[in-house]
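> example.struct
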């Protein structure tokens, strides 16, 4: 069988399973199976594959047909031009979250102390540490497995970040440091909405990385409350938010005395980031 024939069979199988972008995923899984790139597959589509390669490919297609996200099958996701290891223990980094990092790049200066809460793969803090100089970077996650993955991601991306396991600020009890910036893409989906998410997300991504309590705002509340003792006066706080949470999160920040509260839209024109400064007292 040729590469093209095998791939077409993969596309059909994914289409039958109702996978969006069946053609793209079938092609990406072919690249993964043959350990090659898109150009090779386009140029050498009439080359024969071995029986082993065909079996390997079919096994991957079968998993994708079960609606397992492509990234959990390949174990990788690109974010901010960097490669991140992923597994079912962590949320897959989203393109939307690059909007948060880009906004943070404007606010954060070289050498600052930066804290990333709910770090997951570590994609946010690792990108910041990579594109800024000499950050004192700390990432926290409640999941020990996430912290292990994040630590491997910082090593593979050649940056130094201290990853700690714990429930938000509790992880910092022994450090007692204050930060110039706190950043977070916390779980923010309201409990009742979880059931309506696409199968890939609902059944395969970690629920603790998705669910932000009954109203979806629990983590913003807890992070803002705790920031009083962990963010320096004048420090900046940056959140990723759901498209309909801009007002609620802005109000919370204003009630806590924050100034320059700004809601920033993503490339789709939806509210995506809230940032604010803690006033100098
Ligand atoms: N901060 C991580 C990310 O942006 C994980 C977010 C989460 O688990 N909710 O991908």
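> example.seq
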């Amino acid at each position: 069988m040729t590469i093209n024939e095998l791939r077409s069979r993969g596309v059909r199988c994914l289409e039958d399973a109702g996978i969006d972008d069946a053609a793209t995923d079938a092609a990406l899984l072919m690249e993964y199976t043959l350990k090659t790139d898109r150009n090779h597959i386009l140029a050498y589509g009439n080359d024969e594959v071995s029986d082993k390669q065909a079996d390997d490919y079919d096994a991957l297609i079968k998993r994708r047909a079960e609606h397992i996200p492509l990234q959990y099958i390949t174990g990788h996701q690109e974010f901010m031009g960097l490669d991140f290891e992923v597994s079912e223990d962590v949320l897959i980094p989203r393109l939307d979250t690059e909007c948060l990092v880009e906004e943070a790049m404007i606010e954060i200066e070289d050498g600052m102390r930066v804290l990333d809460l709910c770090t997951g793969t570590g994609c946010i803090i690792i990108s910041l540490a990579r594109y800024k100089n000499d950050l004192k970077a700390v990432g926290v996650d409640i999941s020990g497995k996430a912290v292990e993955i994040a630590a491997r991601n910082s090593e593979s991306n050649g940056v130094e970040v201290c990853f700690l396991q714990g429930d938000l600020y509790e992880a910092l009890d022994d450090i007692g440091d204050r930060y110039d910036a706190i950043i977070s893409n916390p779980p923010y989906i309201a409990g009742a909405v979880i059931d309506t998410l696409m199968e890939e997300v609902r059944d395969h991504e970690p629920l603790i990385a998705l669910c932000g309590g009954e109203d979806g705002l629990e983590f913003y509340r807890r992070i803002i409350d705790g920031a009083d003792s962990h963010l320096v006066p004048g420090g900046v706080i940056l959140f990723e938010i759901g498209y309909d949470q801009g007002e609620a999160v802005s109000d919370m920040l204003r009630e806590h005395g924050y100034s320059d509260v700004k809601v920033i839209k993503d490339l789709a024109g939806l509210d995506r980031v809230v940032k604010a400064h803690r006033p100098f007292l």
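> remarks
Residues 51-65 form the longest helix (15 residues).
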